[in-house]
């Protein structure tokens, strides 16, 4: 099972590298990715420590930051809604 997972990881990494060089994306996407990552973390930090939602604390982990990176600020609202609904 581990060998199969390693094979899938290697194939996906090779395909990702192929796409980057085929489309000639350059390194500009790294800057955009870093900016989205930083803004997602700042957004979650602001919600957690300003008291906008006093009863909800959203941890800063890869899943929550990834959700906010993909969905933007509505992702923060989604996480707050899930936290309040499921645990409140």
Automatic annotation (TrEMBL):
Q: Does the keyword Transmembrane helix apply?
A: yes
Has keyword Membrane? yes
- Cited Pfam families: BofA
Tell me where the transmembrane regions lie. 32-53, 65-86
Q: Which UniProt keywords apply?
A: Membrane, Transmembrane, Transmembrane helix
InterPro entries in the cross-refs? BofA
The protein's name: Pro-sigmaK processing inhibitor BofA
UniProt organism field: Paenibacillus campinasensis
